[in-house]
Every structure is written in structure tokens, then in C-alpha cells.
Amino acid sequence: MEYRSKVYLYALLFCFTLAACNGQSKKKVAEENTKEEKRETTTNGTTASNTFLTPESSISINPLTDPTGLPLSYKGQLCHWVRTIFEDSKGNLWFGTNHYGLMRYDGEGLEYFTDEDGLGGGRINDIVEDKEGNVWISTYGGLSKFDGNSFTNYPVKVGPVDNDLWALVVGTDGDFWISTSEGVVRYDGKEFTHFPIPLAEVEDLNPILSPRRVSAIAEDNLGNIWFGTDGHGITIYHPDSEDQGETFSHITTKEGLADNNVAQLFKDSEGNVWIGTMFGGIGRYDGKTFANFTKEGAIKGVEAAGLYEDKQGNIWFSAEHEGVYRYDGTSFQNFYEKEGLISGGILSIYEDSKGRFWMGGWKGLFRYDKSVDLSSGKAFTPVTQHGPWE
User: Fold this and answer.
1) Contact assessment for residue 143 and residue 130, using Cβ atoms and an 8 Å cutoff
2) Looking at the domain that runs over 76-100+118-382, which CATH code has it been given?
3) Residue 200 gets which letter from DSSP?
4) Segment 63-75, tens digit of pLDDT
């Protein structure tokens, strides 16, 4: 119970930091305008000059501080926290941050966007692309769309739902599923609709932010939509069962879930659903049974996130204060300080189309070089304005 309390305190403080600092993105993150390079991008009908840093630029971003004066930057790093990483169909890399808005690397340099450029603002939690090539971003201030030229922000306020968005998933039918601090919203490209989901009854409810918050969404191979919650376990929507009157089902610790506070949901290429939790570590559901790898002693760390499957079919995830793990289908391999990873709080893992491996989280952005011999070298490198990019 002592360790659980420590983790809970950390998570609580982290969430308060998110809420307290979302306003920090309302200023440009770079100064020295006479020295920095500028790009003009049309945003919401106006032209804005965005901060554009090339590897050869002599300036860097302007460090921010939180309301208490604590620094929100690390020397040489691109930002304080990278929450999510995504590559669009044009090969642009997008990085969502906690305090520095949205970053984009296009192969030439790094560009920063904030609410002054039309972005919703605040914490960036998720990034997806639709079939028309638009990039969509879930933010603390609504749902933002980038069409290649400009940002348009859509306030999401329907029913009890507010603009505090978390997970963003495009379903196989093209509809957007959006989780918020007050429930779920469905967007069909024309209209936002509140989508009420029933929550499971649990003992010892222990939400981190809100008992109504939906923290994660995933679609399984059967077309069912999984909703991870902040204390109520998992609610599953079965659209094909609506005629039978059994539209929803629940999974909690009673059914084998590692913990009722869900941090992330991820479906792998074999149809397994992986569940990262706040207090129970990592688990996997194969359609019949649950495996709890933390409880079984295969991994350390009880707060797990960053779930990702690489091109070889390996499953990656992070465990707070324990670095990251790679699962090859048989065993787990841990990577942390000995391998050069200086962050114990990785939130996102991504392998791009060029085979470059990126990890983002506390202390910014990192590259993983899988060609490095771990017995003689460090596989992880912090990414600065000067790279490594290619």
C-alpha cells in the first residue's frame, strides 16, 4: 500500500501540473525574432509566423516555467514532456507536448504551433489522420484539424462533455471516438454527439482526475469499441448486439483486469488487447483470458503506458521509473539507464516509415538505435534541435 500511495501521489501531482500549465502555451515558445527563422502558415484565415528551427539555427526555444516558478524545460531538449508521436501520410513527424503546443518535423527543420496559430491549445494528448489526409489533434481546448495549410479548432461541448480531450480514435466506419474528462463524444464529420456509456460498479473507487473521465479508447477485431476509465475499469460497446439489447459489457478487477484505473488501450496485429494501468502494471486480453505480466513478475513498475507494436511485431511499453520494455512474444527485455535512456517517464513510442525509432515523455524526445551493440554502447540518444534527426 505504501508504494501504491507513492505512485498515486506522483500521478496526482502530474495531473495537477497538466491543468495548471495548459495556459503556458498561449505565448510563442521562441524569442530573439531577429535571429530565428520564420515560416508563414495560414491559420484560421490569417497569416501567422511560426517558430521554425533548422539544425543549423543558432537559437533555441524560450524556456517556460509553471505558476510556481519551477522550470518546464531541460537544457538542450526540445520541450518538457512529449506526450504523443505520429507520422502523417506525407512523412511529417508530429510531436504533441504538455506545454509547448505541437511540434512538426518535415525533414528540413522543426516547427512549433500553439493556440496563436489556431491550435486548440494546452496539453496535446493524441494525433490521428483521416482518409482525406487531414491531421486531427486532441487538445485541452477542443479538437483541432490541420488541412495542410491551416488549423481549425472545433469546441467539443455537448451534453456534460467539455473541451478537455484525451484519446482520439478513428473507427473502421470513419467516425471519430473522442474521450474527455466527462465522458465520450462521437463525431461523424458533421456533428458532435454525446455518447453515454454505463460505468461498472466497483469497490474502492479511486479516480485520479474524475470518476467520469474516459482515459483510453481502442477498437478490437470484431468492431467493438473499448473505453478505459479513470477508476471504473473497461466498458465495451458492442454495436452488433444492439438488437439483442446487450450493447455494453464491463471488465474490472473482478474479471481479471490488472487495475480499474486504465492508462492506455492498444490492439496488436494478432487481435490481442493490451491494457496499461496506473496501479496494476501491464496486462493482455487474448479474447478469452487475461495475462497480468506485472503481477506474474515478468516486469517491474505499476504505471504502464506507451504501448506500441514495431514492424517486427514486438510490443513495446513503458513502466514508470523502470524505463521501457520490449516483448518479442516469448520474453521481456528492459531498456533504461544502462542503455542510455535518461527518462523514467516515457509516454509514447513510435517507429516511422524510415525505420527511425522515437520515444517521448519526461525530459523530451529520444531516439533508439536498434543497431547498437548494448554490450559496448548506448542505444538511446536525447534529441535536440540539432538532432539526431536522420
Assistant:
1) no
2) 2.130.10.10
3) P
4) 666 565 555 666 6
